[in-house]
Design brief:
single chain, about 575 residues, mainly alpha, 4-stranded antiparallel β-sheet, disordered N terminus, CidB/LrgB, transmembrane helix, membrane
């Protein structure tokens, strides 16, 4: 092969005169027939040709320059270094040197070809900056819109649940129906969801998803709505003699444990008899934990409203309204602090207890500083007057909505409810009968006054139904009934989880039924806060225990037998 050189361009030809390509050097002519030169030249020409094609393609799309591969101006310093062909081909690093020469001469000493990173052009950087700024702005707008939509979704869904509860209450009052309207609504909602799931499954799913924000809000604050009865408990038990009070506490504490065991062990026994295999419950979402900003916000509300109420006791018209902000804030803060306690501590000091203690301490402090007395402050906490509500009235206003929300939890576990229907219903029926008759029997054995024993018969039934039950008995004390129900729930809320663990109740069905059958709403709120999967079974037991208890006491034969045992 011979190499004919001209001023700036080499024309390379083969042994038969065929044209091989162009290269670049100064004006010289030489020939070389070594295999190495032939191979190197062929590789370099192939590389040059491919680079030319690739560069031409890329330069039209993303590079601001267009390299000239046909004629490159001479570079004196380059010629000085590589002008000797023997130096070019005979050096021990001849291959790397030739590649360096080709890269430098073809692409230029400072070419940006196929380079990334620091050598980007200013145009590319400007485009990237604008694109990043645009993406960041779009992300912020999207996040903000999602938050606004989430708040609106919560307000609308929760508002519908509250409106539904209010409508049912008004309808039941107008019809003179004494049965709790919320329980009726819970079973109606559950029935509607089951029917929709059978006929139009997509509609049932959409309806459940729509109310999900409201359900999570209620579940997050569930124990808080049962606290007002505990806060004002000192006002309910003041007129009870000490000796009778001790007997009542013994009956309530021992009766709670006995009812829990009967309900739990019955459920497990029935399951074994009918040979129903236990399957895992559907996973239930847990509400989010409390953020520091929430704690500081409620703390600020408490301090500001507490100081304001001391200097201006009727700033909002009445003392109940003026005390409402700091009493509500103290209740919420107590629940937040209790929820943040270690798990081992919460098993013996439940957040519900911390919540009630916090509100009572705030009432004691305000009563002492303002010299109005703690009884007056507790009276303002729960007025039971819609035109002059206290903090407790606001919280208890959610109880109906809480019961309605149980329908959605039951629906989510409908397959498990259907599968274990036998053990659920039988255990609840037996537990309800046991609670009524055991209370009457132990009351007589310990020598408790018959009127007081009758008053605490429905100790395991929610307050609304318990009050309607004792109205069927002459001489009953409704205030004592409410206090007994609250104390039962208090004991259950504080000790139910540890007791269930000791008794080795592992599955959510047995745990849920045992809890709600023995400690009604307070126990349900306490257990479901840590174990959301038990909530559907707590809700079923919570409702059915009250319904069956009311039905049993409505039967004259059962009512007369209870009175005979009481004496």
């Amino acid at each position: 092969m011979s190499i004919q050189t001209f001023d700036d361009t080499r024309h390379l030809t083969g042994e038969n005169g065929e044209f091989l390509g162009n290269s670049f050097a100064h004006s010289k002519t030489f020939s070389m027939a070594t295999p190495f030169l032939t191979t190197s030249t062929t590789l370099s020409l192939s590389l040059s040709t491919h680079l030319h094609r690739l560069s031409s393609s890329l330069s039209s799309t993303c590079f601001p320059f267009k390299p000239n591969l046909h004629r490159v101006p001479r570079n004196p310093s380059l010629l000085a270094s590589y002008g000797n062909p023997h130096l070019l081909f005979n050096h021990e690093d001849h291959h790397s040197t030739y590649k360096s020469l080709l890269s430098t001469r073809v692409l230029g000493p400072k070419s940006n070809f196929l380079q990334m990173g620091p050598s980007e052009t200013s145009c590319s950087r400007e485009i990237l900056v604008k694109s990043s700024a645009s993406d960041s702005s779009n992300t912020v707008i999207s996040t903000l819109s999602q938050k606004v939509f989430g708040v609106l979704h919560l307000v609308v869904s929760l508002g519908i649940v509250l409106a539904m509860d209010k409508f049912l209450k008004q309808a039941f009052v107008a019809a003179a129906i004494k049965f709790p309207s919320a329980l009726f609504g819970m079973f109606c909602i559950f029935s509607v969801l089951v029917i929709l799931d059978t006929t139009i499954p997509a509609a049932a799913t959409s309806l459940t998803n729509f109310f999900e924000p409201a359900l999570m809000f209620i579940q997050r604050w569930l124990p808080l709505f049962y606290v007002p009865a505990l806060v004002v408990l000192p006002l309910s038990v003041r007129d009870i003699p000490a000796a009778s009070g001790l007997k009542i506490c013994f009956i309530i504490a021992g009766g709670w444990l006995a009812s829990l065991c009967v309900a739990g062990f019955t459920a497990i026994a029935i399951r074994k008899i009918v040979k129903t295999e236990m399957v895992d419950a559907e996973p239930m979402a847990k509400p989010s934990s409390f953020a520091p900003i929430e704690f500081w916000t409620w703390g600020g509300i408490f301090l500001a409203s507490f100081v304001s109420a001391i200097f201006y006791p009727t700033a909002l018209g009445t003392t109940a309204r003026t005390c409402l902000p700091f009493l509500l804030a103290s209740t919420v803060l107590g629940y937040m602090v209790g929820s943040g306690l270690p798990s081992a501590v919460k098993k013996v000091l439940h957040p519900i207890i911390c919540c009630a203690l916090s509100a009572d301490l705030a009432a004691v402090a305000f009563g002492y500083i303002s010299q109005s007395g703690v009884d007056a402050v507790l009276g303002d906490y729960l007025t039971k007057v819609s035109s002059n509500p206290g903090a407790g009235d606001i919280l208890m206003g959610f109880l109906g909505s809480v019961i309605l929300s149980f329908a959605f939890s039951m629906f989510k576990q409908r397959k498990l409810v259907k599968r274990h229907a036998a053990e659920i219903f039988i255990s609840i029926i037996l537990s309800s009968l046991f609670s009524l008759y055991s209370t009457a029997l132990v009351g007589r054995l310990v020598g408790l006054e018959p009127s007081l024993t009758v008053s605490i018969l429905p100790r395991c039934i929610t307050v609304a139904l318990a009050l309607s039950i004792v109205s069927l008995f002459e001489g009953a004390n409704s205030s004592l009934t409410a206090a007994a129900v609250v104390v039962t729930g208090l004991i259950g809320a504080n000790f139910v989880q540890a007791t269930l663990d000791k008794l080795r109740f592992r599955d959510p069905i047995a745990r849920g039924i045992a809890t709600a059958s023995s400690a009604h709403g307070l126990g349900t709120a306490a257990l479901s806060a840590n174990e959301p999967e038990t909530l559907p079974f707590c809700a079923i037991a919570y409702g059915l225990t009250g319904i069956f208890g009311s039905l049993f006491c409505s039967v004259p034969v059962i009512r007369q037998s209870l009175l005979a045992i009481v004496g």
